[in-house]
Each structure stands twice: as C-alpha cells, then as structure tokens.
Amino acid sequence: MQSDMTMPLLAECASDLSKSLPRSQRDPVIGIIGSGDFSRSLAIRLVGCGFRVVVGSRQPSRVAKGVFPDRVEVRSQREAIHAAERVVFAAIHPEHYHSLVGLREMLAGKVLVDVSNATTLTSHKQSNAETLAELFPKSSVVKGFNVVSAWALQTGAHDGSRQVLICSNCSDSKAMVLELARRMGFSPVDLGSLCASRGIEEAPLILFPSWGGPILTTLILFIFFYGYIFLRHILLPYLDHRENNFYQLPLVTVNQTLPAVALVTLALVYLPGLVAAVFQLGRGTKYKRFPCWLDCWLCRRKQLGLLSFLCTALHAVYSMCLTLRKAAGYTLLNAAYHQVKAGIENSWVEQLVWRADLYLSCGILGFGVLTLLAITSLPSVGNALNWREFTFVQSGLGYAALALSTMHTLFFGWDFAFSPGAYPYYLPPAYLLALIPPCIVLVGRLFLAVPCLTLRLAKIRKGWESTQYWPVNNQEPGGSREAHPQQNFDDV
Amino acid sequence: MQSDMTMPLLAECASDLSKSLPRSQRDPVIGIIGSGDFSRSLAIRLVGCGFRVVVGSRQPSRVAKGVFPDRVEVRSQREAIHAAERVVFAAIHPEHYHSLVGLREMLAGKVLVDVSNATTLTSHKQSNAETLAELFPKSSVVKGFNVVSAWALQTGAHDGSRQVLICSNCSDSKAMVLELARRMGFSPVDLGSLCASRGIEEAPLILFPSWGGPILTTLILFIFFYGYIFLRHILLPYLDHRENNFYQLPLVTVNQTLPAVALVTLALVYLPGLVAAVFQLGRGTKYKRFPCWLDCWLCRRKQLGLLSFLCTALHAVYSMCLTLRKAAGYTLLNAAYHQVKAGIENSWVEQLVWRADLYLSCGILGFGVLTLLAITSLPSVGNALNWREFTFVQSGLGYAALALSTMHTLFFGWDFAFSPGAYPYYLPPAYLLALIPPCIVLVGRLFLAVPCLTLRLAKIRKGWESTQYWPVNNQEPGGSREAHPQQNFDDV
Amino acid sequence: MQSDMTMPLLAECASDLSKSLPRSQRDPVIGIIGSGDFSRSLAIRLVGCGFRVVVGSRQPSRVAKGVFPDRVEVRSQREAIHAAERVVFAAIHPEHYHSLVGLREMLAGKVLVDVSNATTLTSHKQSNAETLAELFPKSSVVKGFNVVSAWALQTGAHDGSRQVLICSNCSDSKAMVLELARRMGFSPVDLGSLCASRGIEEAPLILFPSWGGPILTTLILFIFFYGYIFLRHILLPYLDHRENNFYQLPLVTVNQTLPAVALVTLALVYLPGLVAAVFQLGRGTKYKRFPCWLDCWLCRRKQLGLLSFLCTALHAVYSMCLTLRKAAGYTLLNAAYHQVKAGIENSWVEQLVWRADLYLSCGILGFGVLTLLAITSLPSVGNALNWREFTFVQSGLGYAALALSTMHTLFFGWDFAFSPGAYPYYLPPAYLLALIPPCIVLVGRLFLAVPCLTLRLAKIRKGWESTQYWPVNNQEPGGSREAHPQQNFDDV
C-alpha cells in the first residue's frame, strides 16, 4: 500500500490501469459555458488532453450533432456548472456575462476562466475579467487563453503561438489554470493579479508591439534619404538646367536610398551596445540600471537588424535587376555609338574595373554574412545554438557584416568624394552621410578594444564595482565594502 | 502522512529522494520484444525518459555488448514479458507475430503496442494491429509509434517529427500509451478505435498528403501555359514563316510560363476565402458546413501559396540571369551595329524606360512581400506570432502581394494588348490569360468591402444568423428563436 | 479516501485546490547560493515554474529591491540552505567554492547543483564539479545548467537552447535534477557519472563542434581551387606574355572557385552513403560497426551539404552581379566597336546561345532544389516531416541536385575540353577537376541500382546477414545459426 502511494510520477501511467474504476470516472471534468467557435475548439483540445468536458448551452437541443466531439457532453448551463469539478470556462461574449447572474450560487467556489478579448484600446474602462469578478464575488476569476486563436486550440500548439498570458487575484486558482495550460501544451506566463487583465485583453489588439519603434525609425530614414536624393539628383538639376531625370524615381532612386538606410540601421544595431559599455565604464558598475531609452534600444536590436537585412536584400535584388532596365540598354547602345564615332578601339579603364569589382565583392560578402545572421534569428535555428555560439554569431559576424558594408560603400565612393564635382549645390552625396554612423561605431569599437578599457569592462561585467561609485551614488559607506573584498563573489 | 500523500505534482521530485527504496525499484518496467534497430532506439529513449526497460530476444546471448545501453536488460522473450509491468512493445516484423502465440497466456492483461508499418497500399487487407489483436484476444492492443523513425527516437523529438498517431479498442490502454508518448517527448494524437490502424500503418507510405492537390494544380497550370507559349511564340511562327525560336525553349519560355503560373496560383490562394464569404452571406449563417470541395480548398491555401512563391522565386532568378545569356549579348551587339549604321545618336525612348522601371519595381516589391509571407509560414516563425498578427500578415500582406503582382503584369503589358499585333494567330498573350483570376479576386474583394456587406459578414462571423435561413433549411420554428434574442450569446 | 489517493495525474490540478493548506506551504523549496546574474535568472525561472525559491547571499541587505521577483526570499546563505528541501544551486564563481566549507554540515544530504563553466580548455585540471564534490563529500553533487545562458533562463526555453547536459555520481539526485530541468521547460540529457563534468563544463567553450571538419574541408578545397585558377588564368599568362588579368582576383576568380568547391562538397555529401553501402554489401551484414572515419563522415553530411549550399548561393549571387561589372560593360562596348568595324550585321552563334541557356537552366534548377534541401534542414521544417518524407527530400532531391549541378558543369564545359587550347601549360580547366567526385558518386549510385545489388542491400538493411560472414569475423559457429532460420526476426 505504502509503495503504491509513493510511486513516483513516471509510474502513474502504469498504475493507472490497475484500478477497477472505468477511466471516464476518474478524469477531472471541465465545464465550458457557451457553445460557439471558441468553446468548440477548447472542448476539442481539452478532450484531446485527457479531460472530460461538459459544455453548457442555453439551448443544448439546438447544438447540431457533430459540432462537438463525441466525448463532449452538451447540456444546459446549469448542468454543466454542476458537473464541472473546479474549472468553468466562460466562453461567451462579455456583454452577456450578466445573464449568468442567476447561476451565481452554483458558481461559488469554482474557478471561472475569462477568455474574452478587448474590442477597443480604451484606457479608462474596466477589463472584462474585472467585470466578471465583480459579478461573481464568490468565484475566483482567472484571466487567460484569450491570445490563443480557436484554430491554434484545435490544431495544437505546434501551429499556433504557445504563449498563454494568465493572471488572477487568487494564487491557488491561478496555479491550477497555469497547470491546466501546461497540460494543454501551452507555455503559460504568470502576469500576477487581475489588474493585469486589461493588458492581457488588449494584447491581441496590438500588432507586433516590439516592431513599432524600429519600423518607424527605418521609415523616417527612408523618407529622409529618398527626399535628399530626389532633391540632389532630380529636382535641383531639373530646376537648374531642365535635366529630366524623373524616370529614376521608381527604381534608381529607391536603389540609392535602400543601401543608405540599411547601413545606418545596421550601425544603430551596434551603437547601443557601445553606449552601454561607456555607461558601465563611466559608472564603474553593471548593477545600476541603464536609462530607459537605452534599455528600450537594446531590446530592439534584433528588429533593427532584421529591417536592415530587409533593406539590404531589397538593395541586392534591385541592383541585380539594374541591367534588365531598358535605360541600361539605351545607355550602352548610345555609348557604343559614341565609341565607334570617336574611333576608340579599347575604352577599358583599369581603375574603374577594380573599383566595381571591389565594391561588388564587399557588397556580396557583406550580404552573405548578414543573411547568416538573419537565419540564426529564426527561432528554431537560434534554439539549436548554445549561448556562446549565439553570441559569436550575433556579435562577431555582426561586426564583420558592418565592416564589409562600410567597405562596400567606401569602395563605391572611391576618390570621387574628393573632387569638387561631387558637391553640386553644396550637397554631399548621400552615401557620405550614410557612412557617418557606421564609422562612429567601428571607431568606437576599436577604441574599446584598447587593453586597459577591455580589461576594466570584463571585470565590471563579472560583477566588480569601482569603489568610488558607491559613496557618490548610493550613499553606502565605502568602508563597509572594503571589509568584504569578495564583493564580486555572488555572481556567475 | 497526510501531507505527504497530498503533496502536489511539483513537489514529487523533491519527495522522491526521501524514500528509502532505490530508484530503480520504483520506476515502471517496459518490455520490448525484439532486439533490432527499432527496439534499440526505443530502449534508448525509454531509459532516457526514466523508465526501466527489459528487452526480450530470441537469443539474448547473441545480442552484442554495447548495442543496448547499460541500463537495459536483455533477456529471453518470456522473461521480458514477465518483467514488464503493463506495457510490452512488439518490435518485430509483423510476419513473425504468430511466433509469439506460445506466450499468449503470459501476455494476457498486458498492453501490447504494435509499432509496425504497412509495406504496400492495399486497401483490402487486415492491418497488422488487427492481426495482432486477433492473435492475442486477452491483451489490449494499441497501435502507435510507427510514424517515428528509429533515428528520431534516439536523438530526441527535437530533430524528428513529434507527432505520434495512436489508436486502440481499449480506451484505458490507449490513455496509458498516450501518456507514455507524452512523457517520451512526443505529441500523441488519439485517432480512436483500432479500425483506424490501417490508416496509421499506411501514413508513412503517403508522402506529403496535403501537397498532392496543390502540386498537381501547379503542374497542370505549368503545362498549359508552357504549351500555350510554345504554340504562340515558337511552333506557329516556325510553321508560318520558318522563324527559328527553338533556342528559347530551355530558358525564355520557362521564364514566361513561371510568372503566369505564379500569378494564377496566388489568385487561387485568395479565391476560396471570397467564395466562403459569398456562401456565408447567401446562407446568412456561419454554422452550415461548406461543401466538401471548398473545405478542402481552404485547407490547401498554405501549400498553394508556397508553390506560388516557389514559381515567383524561380521567375526572379531566371529574370536576373537573362542578361547573362549569350543571346542577350548578341542582341545588344546587333542593335549597336544597326544604331551606328542608321546614325542614331540617342535611341532613348522615355516611355519604354518608364514601363521597364515600373514593372521591375512592382515585381521586386511583390516578390519581397511574398518572401515575408513565406517566412511567416515557417513553423517556428508562425509560432512566435499571436493569431491576430498571423491574420494580418497572411491576409493583409497577401492581398498586397497579389495587388503588386497584378500591377507588375499590367505594367509589363503596358498598352501593347490594345494593338492588333499582340494577337498573332488570334491568340492573346499569355499574361493576359494569367491576369483573369487575380483581377476576379481583387474586384471580388473590393465588392465585399462595400459597407453593408462587410457589416453583415462581420455580424455573421460573430455568430448572428439571419432568421429567414432557419425555417427554410432546418425546419426549426422561427418563433422559438424570437423568444431568445440572445441567440448569438454562445460565441466568442 | 482511496479514490483520492489513486486519482490519476490529470486530476491533480483539480484536487489541488481542495486542500486546506495554502499553496505556498506545499511547493518544494529550492535554494540558490549566490545573488548574481545567473542566480537572478534561475530564481525568476524557478518561481515561474511553480517552485518556491530562497536565495542565499553573503549580504542579503545589499541586494537591491526589485532585483529578484517578489516571491523570491533573499536571506543569508545559512538560512537559504536550511530552507531548501533538497536541491541547492551553487551559483557562485568556482574560485569561491571553498568559502562555503563552513556550511558543509548543513549541506550534508542535500543535492548541490554546480552550474559553472570552464574558463579555459586545459585537459589536465579537475573539473569544477569534481572540486565541489571533494569539498562536500556528504552532499550529492550534480553538474548541469551551465550551457544555458542567464538570458535563456529568464525568457524561457523558447528563445534559448533547450538542451541541458547533466551528470552526477548519485543516480537518485541526478534523476531529481533531470525531472527539475524538464519541469523548467528544458530537455535534459543524462551524460552519466561526474567524470563527464569536464566535458560539460567545456561545452560552451567549443563553438559549433560538428562544423569544424566540414568547414576545414571546404576551406582547403577553396584554397586549392583558388590557387589553381590563379596559377592557370592569372600568374602563368602574366609570366608568359605579360597578360594583365589581376583585376579578376576579387570577383571573377572567386566566382570560378565557388562552383568547383560547391560541386565537390556536394559530392562529398553522398559519397559516404555509397561507401557505407559497399561496406554492408561486402560484409553481408549491417550489424558490424563502420570504421570510425566513415561514422564521423556520415554524421557530418548535413554540415557539408549546408556549406555546399552556401557556396552555391554565393556563386549564384556573384554570377548575377557579373553584368553589373564595369569590365562587362567595356567588353561589350569593345565588341560592338569591332563588330561595326568588321561590318558583321549579325554575330549570332546558335550553338553558343544554346550552351548558355542550357547551363543557366540547369544551374538555376539545381540551385532551386538545393534551396529546398536547405530549407528542410531548418529544425522547425524538418520536425514537420515524418521520416519517410525527410528521407525522400534528403536523398531523392539531393541526388537530383547533384545531377543538375553536374549537368550545369557539363553544359558549361560543352566540347571545349576536347580542344587542345583548353590545356594551356598542360593544366586542365578547374571545372574538369571538380567534375571527378560527382561523376564517381553518380556512376557508383547507378551501379548500386543494379537489381541484384539493390535487393541484397535491402535484405541486409532489414537485418538479414550472409552466413559466410559470421564464422570469418565473429568465430560464432555457423551451425547454430542454421538452426534458427528466423535470425532476422528481431528487427523492424
């Protein structure tokens, strides 16, 4: 008897069969109020995970055969709540919550799971879960499962997002729903008490929350460079001497803008790391929080990097299509005409040949390295790396890509930037402007590679703190620290 | 004592050690009959998941040291079955099942797992699992684990497919094997009773079941367009005036066919959604099932989309290789010769320059958007999106890609379609034919964006049903519905 | 009472709430010594997984509010160890392990988890875990969690590597930590006793262990072909008749080297499979281990294939950029000049047009097939295939890609290899050398497709063994085998 009771986890599936009771009487029963799409998908998933499910409908007779799987019982709402052992899902529209008030006493002591979404982003309203909690003060309301689609529920967590955000004021009920979510194959995230429910309800309304800033930055850079090149190459020449370059607008100008945007964005990926290092060096500790803007910037590096890669890839495709343009054909034909008329047998200019081959080479290699970086950003590839490999790829290859892209631009510029003709209307070429941020980053990185700075930074990152920091900022007596020379003891 | 018994799940690993029994005596024992590749991999996995394993071999002495891990005991078949608490895997060739008949009484009451595959797709034979169940009427036979390779078993579910299809006539035994599969890191799918075992056994024989229809569709479209272009551009000109265009067969004709196929296939991705909306609008409810062909079509949209992307990507690469062709060089040289001979200093035609730049731009952007769509089709990327983000990408970006591709084709066509010369032998150019389906889809989509239709559709998709629908189709008295104004109550 | 005790696993979350004890008193308590970065991340994860955590710091008062989540108690090291039920993590620098010696008696009987990394790859030192085990002989030391980054711990196993390598001399303690790791969402791998700890500690120091050989192979091939082409096309012509081709170094030579490397590497992917088949045919059994070099080679096929794909992709991009080069423009202009001067109206050479179109077609298709192969190498895509689909893609499409690449090279070579001019300085062109390995593989594959060999191989792979093999190699009497005609009985 004792040995049976204390049998470890893994033995349970073996001991399961030895019971005389039929299985269906031993599984926990989950209740679902509502018989709509979400209810149906939830029931399919719960049954598939070994639970018994009773669906409560206003009109159980109206629910068509075959809508729910055979193992799901469809009964009245009252019967479903009665049958549910502990957990009842409220899978109905929030505007109909009040209609359940008559079942208040039956729901007392049960865990009521609110799965509804917010419909608008209004900041001054109560959340649906809070409304439900007010209506049923004797039940413990748990918010969750709203970020999951009916489709993900039905097809399994393979194909949908696994993350389920959960909150509740009752930690026991929350623990139960967390466990339930885990058994259903989701990755529940505990967000604390019910005051987080507004955020959870609004989560599906906010698209790609971490992409807003980076996309905006990229867009602003694109508009700036496009406008600048339009002004310098098209508008001013037209106003000045009626040169018609407007045909360049759809393709050529875009292809001049994209590499500038890509280069600046890539520099913005590595700039915050340098700024953070400077902060740590200046403060002499890693334990003080970075300013908010820097924290936020550091968290957006992956998105900035992917947008930089997107611009680079588009630039590559645009460039490879350049010779397909009718304009390229006409230019070549006219050049041939003039060469023949001028009687030049060989128009070869060795220097220009080298320039083109060098900037193409650097560009292709830089693009290749960036592509490797983008591939390791795929969740399934990143998961297969340990963190040192990930760091090597993201930092080592990242700087290689930045250096190659900068060289691509420098070779493209060649020595033309030194001739006065490169500054019509006193405007420098766009690629010169785009070179400023990456050059700052590369010079800054080289500067940090000076041994004394590198060593100090490594020490700080291992937990060491410079003593002059504490008295100034935290008012902790410096003396008490001297007594504990092992202050970096507690870190790995 | 009481507190020990009621200790929750998560405490068990902590309480585990407090027992005086050695661990090996408390783990459940799994038996495996057979000592081949599959048996070995199964044993490695089971042992790795904390089970004790006893392998039963005809000749245990012949099994070489080191083939099985140390913790696996290799004994006679009789001893292995005796040692197994409940579950015995039959990892032998199905043609040898009869040789186990002598062990029938020993196997009585145990769960016998059949892991065999079908060797041919013959529809009139009994499945291996059914044969096993007949031979051992007192054991409960469970079918499963056959879709998993020995390799996936050994290396863990990371690298192999996680899905394990399981069926059995005994629901208790099935529940036990489902739990076992879960503990081994697989995602078991319960397919019901043993009559499903034929399908499970044949599953590994059918390659990419969901890809058959879409690939066939794409192939038929490819053959049609290739044949059409061959006829119009190569065969008829040759028969008519001996124009030799046969050199176009390997590359140029393929590159004219691919965009046509890609455009039609992309339109086929968005057409079924429109048809479904029309069905829902016409019926006034979303609760009636779509016809079978539409259901099937809706389920194949992802595959059609990926095939369309494949054609688009090939078209992009082919196009970018066009100027590498010797033919392109010769054409340009001959044009230069004629321009010089004719004494034309500048052959620039502004309109054709604009046309080329515009259709290249639209093509590149459309290809870029399609690539984003294809990337979000990767399981690991799709998992990282919540369902509203997924819908935004798949529907919003999808229509953008369709619109850009259509514009790419329209700009390519320019105004040439209005000149009589575009219809040699009364055959319209292929791109005109390919434009028909996307134009239908885009016009249909615009039509559904009319406010009254959009609002009605949104209402229907929230669960509202038009009253005139029910009496006609379901013969349910309309009156009883009026008494329940909250008929859309039960949905989320 | 009885029914409560025997309640199956899935019911526990339901029964959990029925207890009168508050939940926090029933969760197991985990102790963490150290309050650094890793400790903090570990605590966040453990609390998120439902454990109670007590962190032991030298100076609990110095740990700032908000560094640890609210549910984590920060106390003295002594109190933390006392509070921990069984498991204590030692999240401090290994050089400070000796400072814990005073707590030796308190730690007796507890499980001490060493999470430290090696700092250098020195083969003659004791591992950190072994040092810890020596210091605390009464505790059971378990090595693990070191390959996980603090970041992966905090953000969940979604974003970091899931694999956790674990070893210990005490199998009970190890089992407990394995279970703990599983509950934290990781995939623990049991590597046996503590003597494996050195390897585990050094694992994060070795970057991409399975990539070393393949990358070296590819590099050597690259250097060989680059040198060969440099010699044949640039250096010897320069020494011979001062022909200046040095401008080809950055791009043209690289683009001639890459396809040769890609082709040879791709052949190296399929060669070991053939060698293995020959071994199996020769020995008449699949049960004898392959020689070590072949085993190793077979395990590196995926890496070789991906490197071959990388070279192919770079070759494709380089080739598509060829017409962007200034040199290409000059060549065309000069050709136009000469054509005009020579008065050739049409320079079209039908044969050369066919050659270019054919080799471009084969190249594009081969590249397309290789891309499909590379995509199915992504973990998340490969997971969605069952093993027969995976085999079909990797083997079927792989040979298709090899055949198309070989044809690409053969069409590129055309009949030029038969002219004496193709052998300046008696050196054959590089592509001829690169064709040797793939031709060997393709001919070998065709040879193995001879029915008698195919059937014999299939029999062997099903487990059949030729009788003449055993007496020669294993000295097992052949007679005893004849008595058991079902020797292939034990395999699936």
Automatic annotation (TrEMBL), chains A, B, C:
Residues 261-403 form the Ferric oxidoreductase domain. One of its GO terms (molecular function) is ferric-chelate reductase (NADPH) activity. It catalyses: 2 Fe(2+) + NADP(+) + H(+) = 2 Fe(3+) + NADPH; 2 Cu(+) + NADP(+) + H(+) = 2 Cu(2+) + NADPH. The keyword rRNA processing does not apply. Residues 471-492 are annotated as: Disordered. One of its GO terms (cellular component) is endosome membrane. The chain crosses the membrane at residues 215-238, 258-279, 358-378, 390-411, 431-453. It is found in: Endosome membrane. Residues 30-117 form the Pyrroline-5-carboxylate reductase catalytic N-terminal domain. One of its GO terms (biological process) is iron ion transport. Keywords: Copper, Endosome, FAD, Flavoprotein, Ion transport, Iron, Iron transport, Membrane, Metal-binding, Oxidoreductase, Transmembrane, Transmembrane helix, Transport. Belongs to the STEAP family. This is Metalloreductase STEAP3-like. It comes from Stegastes partitus (bicolor damselfish). The lineage of its organism: Eukaryota, Metazoa, Chordata, Craniata, Vertebrata.
